[in-house]
Design goal:
- This protein is an all-alpha fold.
- It folds into two domains: about 55 residues, Orthogonal Bundle (434 Repressor (Amino-terminal Domain)), CATH 1.10.260; about 40 residues.
- About 60% of the residues lie in helices and about 0% in strands.
- It is elongated.
């Protein structure tokens, strides 16, 4: 799936709304999503700012969505003894699976409120 479309759907935004952000029609956004029309550099920058992602992620040149979040992920891996030099970055599906697993572990480890 086109990254622009993926981000737009995740944000629950219409093509018309996204078009208003970058100064084009909703139909033009549809053409960008179908890759029938190329985005100009200024529109790419506006979209990256709007979706808080890197331009490389938006263009499909990187799987790292947000460099700041990526740094936090790397620090977390280092704390548990993993090094990214030995591994490929997780896919979006793997990230979702990891997030669900972490939620389960944290839920099970939640401290009970004391009655003091």
């Amino acid at each position: 799936m086109n990254r622009l479309k993926k981000l737009r759907i995740e944000a629950e935004e219409s093509q018309e709304y996204v078009g208003s952000i970058i100064g084009v029609s909703g139909q033009a956004v549809g053409q960008y999503e179908l890759e029938k029309r190329d985005l100009s550099p200024d529109k790419i920058l506006k979209l990256a700012e709007h979706y808080n992602c890197s331009t490389d992620y938006l263009l499909g040149k990187s799987d790292i969505r947000n460099l700041e979040q990526s740094d936090e992920d790397l620090l977390g891996l280092a704390k548990i003894g993993f090094s990214m030099k030995d591994y490929n970055p997780p896919t979006d599906k793997q990230r979702e699976q990891l997030a669900e697993l972490i939620k389960i572990v944290l839920k099970d480890n939640k401290k009970e409120k004391s009655d003091n």
